[in-house]
Amino acid sequence: MDHLDKLSETHLYSLRTLKTPGVGRTVAKVLIVLTAVLIIVLFLPWQQNIRGKGTLTALSPKNRPQLVQSAIAGRITNWHIIEGDFVRRGDTLLSITEIKDKFFDPDLIMRIEEQLDAKRNSRDAKTNKVRALRNQISALENALVAKTSQAKNKLQQAKLKLQADSLEFVAEQVNYENATSIFERNKNRYDAGNITLTKFQEIESKFQMSAAKVLKAENEWLQRKADLANAILELTSIEADYTDKISKAQSNLNETISGLNETMAEISKMENELSNVRIRQQQYQIIAPQSGYVVKAIKVGIGETIKEGDAVATILPESEDKAVEMYVKAMDIPLIEEGKKVRVQFDGWPALQFSGWPNVSVGTFGGLVAIIDRVQSKNGMFRILVKPDPEDEPWPEQLRLGSGIKGWVMLNNVPIWYEIWRQMNGFPPMIYEDGEVPENAEKK
Predict the structure, then answer these.
(1) Is residue 90's pLDDT more than 60?
(2) How many Å apart are CA 175 and CA 207, to the nearest integer?
(3) Bridge partners for 343 per DSSP
């Protein structure tokens, strides 16, 4: 044994140098531990997320910065505020004067009111004339009915008298024929000497009286025919006369009504003009539409002219309403829904963000997806609005609208190895029930 020990110490030096150094063994152990830790870490849960950038804004449009515009053209005469001032709704921002010669007259309202009063008096006069003409037409119509009725009665009377005189004329003709026959027979008898001259003269007298009665009856009959024709003519004349009078009155009435309508239209136009002038004069003072801070004055020079609709200042409404306007890729929109949790990092606000482990992030704030646009924006991305999460830490009061932000829409949990594999292949995030990866994912 002593021999072997001496041999080992003197002749096996090279074998002794081949032993593993202590440092190498330490490194190997460290690598083994790191590999084990890495393998364990690969199976730790990782919360998938969708990243986006944007700015801080207000959730309600009425609370976002707005331009104050002038409703009329004018020239700036005085500013009543400076940039940064807080103004309340109805406060005067600036004053302007008129630049259109149509409105230069300082007594324009009084003159329009005088013209309006004259037109109203004309309207009243025409209204009274319309009323009088309608009464006149009504009276003429009543007179026409009365006169027509009277003329019809006279016509009926003329017809009856004509009928009576016609019968009387016929009767007298019969009597005349009888008298003629008697006269001729007695004349023959007188010529024969059978009757005396006195008797013959008596018969001749009766014959002449009968002839006179026939002539009288005929004249009366002809007079009744003339009376009937006159009654018919009178009835026709009355209808024509009153129809003409009524037509003229109706024409005058229509003409007056037309003039009245034109006057009413002119009155309405002048009232509209008067109202416009009054409202226009109220626009000489440009007031704040709501309470807020004057951010910027756009038209600044005294004497500078502005047009209708020109913006003169920008106001930031006084409101605690804050939201994040964030833009995400179109491929990620189907995975986002209202109410999803969001982590937000504000520019200028120190933060340490672990997107997959939001619980250990520092300096970020919680939010909820409130609105998702239905169309893409000009940059080809979709906009979402995120409001503060009431269950999380309140957002800082020092934030200003327009500040830049970074955001992460939080999805479900997956193993870290799967997230690395997804990122290497460029696949979009996936949403699984209960935050678990399906079995076929491992086979891929």
Answers:
(1) yes
(2) 9
(3) 366, 408
